[in-house]
Each structure stands twice: as C-alpha cells, then as structure tokens.
C-alpha cells in the first residue's frame, strides 16, 4: 500500500482529489487542512514552522504528497505565504525528511497570463502572469521545479479553470451559481460582470484523475504539465447553458468591466498533449455534466 498525504484536503480541489484517492484499493490516504477538522491532520504550510511540518511527515510517512493548498485572494503577504512560502517550505521538508517521496503540486493557468488568441498554451510558453495571484503561483511553481533539479521527485500540474460541485464564489462558475440561486429566490435578474473572456474549463473530477495518473506513472520528463479541457469556451456560453439548465427565464445583465485580471487575460486554452503523452490522461467530463451537477447540488 502506498501512503498518500493530501494537503489542502478540505478545499475545493482538495476535497475531490482526496475523495478519488481514498477510493483506490492500493492507496492509504491521509488528509491535512488548516483547521484540522473532519478527521484531517492540522497543517498550514503558510504559517507552520519546520518542526510542525517535520512532525506531520514523520507521523504520516508518505510515499506521495499532493499539495492542493493555496490562496486565490488576499493581500500580498497572504498570497505569498500560501502560494510561495508554503510550497517552498514543503519541498525543503521533503528533501530533508522524506527524500524518496513524490510531490505533486497544483499550479494555476494564471501563471501564464496573457496568451495569443486561438493559440493553445504549451508548457514551454514563457509565463507572463498578471496580478499578485499569478505571480505568487508562478513563484511557488519555480520553487518546486528548482527542488526537482536538486533531486526531488516533483511534478507541477498547472490547472486551468476548474469547474464542478462546490466551486467557490471567488471563481466564475461558483459566482454564477450563487447569483443564479439569488435571482431565483428573489425573483430578480442575474447580474454579473463582463462576460467577454474565453476560458478553458476543466471539471474538478478530471483534475483529480490527473493527480491519480501522476501518482501511478513511473516518472515524467516534464516538470510542469497542463491540466485543462483543451477547449476554449466563451464565458457567455457557460452562462447561457447554466441559465437554460436551471430553467431561469429572467434577464441576465453583464454590468461593469468584471475583474481586472479577466480583462487583462481575455483568452486562454490549454494544450494538453503533454499530459496525454506522459500521464496517459485526458479529460472525460463534459461541460454540460459539470453545470448540471453544480446546479443540482444547490437547488435540491
């Protein structure tokens, strides 16, 4: 039995990753979270010192560590702590206390920043992040890839726009579902920001499958692999499809410019050929299934 430690197991991505891995007969899975509730080990990479992290590694003795922890919002110190200090601290601790363990770290498409329209982004494309979130996620990726150069068995899965049940309000899918629920409840219009962006949406279950594939594979040539759907979809289509699926007949207004980050990165699509080649992975959950299950989860 291989022992797997999932850090950030109570977050949106971490919950789905933990659930899939915990169903595998050949894996023994331990979850860690900042709160330490719901049977999780308490661990906060952003603030816990070396001794606390060493103690968790000693207690769990992982063969694989999956880092789903991170922050998508906050000030510079909060983002740097969660997205830079945490991954760097984890890589260093593994090098000292569990040098044979594999580290799988979840990065973000925000690390790429601005992309050429209609040109899928490959892992060799130079990152040009926009805003603190993308900058800090890229710095965390750099810490992991540097540790790999010094012998750590490490891989970054650069995740594009995740969608699925439990998507947080900070994400467009989560914000859309929440606003649609409010509009239905209050017999009001749906009000959103700009819907002009084009994004690559990937179901959270496909992301979890990519993590499992990264655990199972013997080795990878690339330090970073894209995890997306490989399809660029207008945000307007996602909104339209969910509105139709929910049976909402009221008006939908796009008010204002939306987030500055979305305005500066109008188009993104992942090239997922490397993940297909190195992990034997491909996404299988379609957008309609993702949206249907998201709406069913909140409308019961």
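-> sequence recovered:
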């Amino acid at each position: 039995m291989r022992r797997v430690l999932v850090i950030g197991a109570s977050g949106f991505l971490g919950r789905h990753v933990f659930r899939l891995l915990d169903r595998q007969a050949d894996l023994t899975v331990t979850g860690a979270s900042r709160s330490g509730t719901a049977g999780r080990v308490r661990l906060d990479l952003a603030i816990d010192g070396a001794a606390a992290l060493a103690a968790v590694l000693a207690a769990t003795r992982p063969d694989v560590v999956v880092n789903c922890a991170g922050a998508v919002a906050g000030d510079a110190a909060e983002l740097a702590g969660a997205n830079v200090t945490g991954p760097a601290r984890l890589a260093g601790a593994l090098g000292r206390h569990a040098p044979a363990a594999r580290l799988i770290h979840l990065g973000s498409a925000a690390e790429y920043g601005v992309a050429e329209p209609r040109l899928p982004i490959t892992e060799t494309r130079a990152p040009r992040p926009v805003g603190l979130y993308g900058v800090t996620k890229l710095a965390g990726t750099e810490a992991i890839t540097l540790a790999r150069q010094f012998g750590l068995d490490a891989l970054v899965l650069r995740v594009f726009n995740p969608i699925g049940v439990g998507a947080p309000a900070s994400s467009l899918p989560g914000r859309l579902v929440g606003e649609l629920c409010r509009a239905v409840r209050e017999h009001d219009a749906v009000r959103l920001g700009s819907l002009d962006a084009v994004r690559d949406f990937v179901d959270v279950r496909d992301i979890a499958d990519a993590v499992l594939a990264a655990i199972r594979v013997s080795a990878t040539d690339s330090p970073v692999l894209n995890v997306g759907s490989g399809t660029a979809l207008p945000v307007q289509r996602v909104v339209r499809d969910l509105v139709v699926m929910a049976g909402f007949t009221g008006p939908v207004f796009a008010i204002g410019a939306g987030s500055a980050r979305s305005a500066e990165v109008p188009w993104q699509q992942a090239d997922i050929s490397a993940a297909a080649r190195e992990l034997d992975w491909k996404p299988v959950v379609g957008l309609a299934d993702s949206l249907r299950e998201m709406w069913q989860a909140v409308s019961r």
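Residues 5 and 65 are 5 Å apart (CA to CA).
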